Amino acid sequence: MSAGAAGLPLAVAQSAPPQAAANGQKMNVRLIPATREPLPVIGCGTWVGFGHAPGSAEYRRLPDVLQALFDAGGTVIDSSPMYGRAEQTTGELLAASPQRTRAFLATKVWTRGRAEGIAQMEQSFAHLRTQKIDLMQIHNLVDWRTHLATLRDWKAQGRIRYIGITHYTPSAFGEVEAVLRAERLDFLQINYALDDRTAEQRLLPLAAERGVAVIVNQPFGGGGLLRRLRERPLPAWAAEIGCTSWAQLLLKFTLSHPAVTCAIPGTSRPEHMADNAQAGFGTLPDPAFWRSRADTVLA
Question: Does the global pTM surpass 0.70?
Answer without folding.
Answer: yes
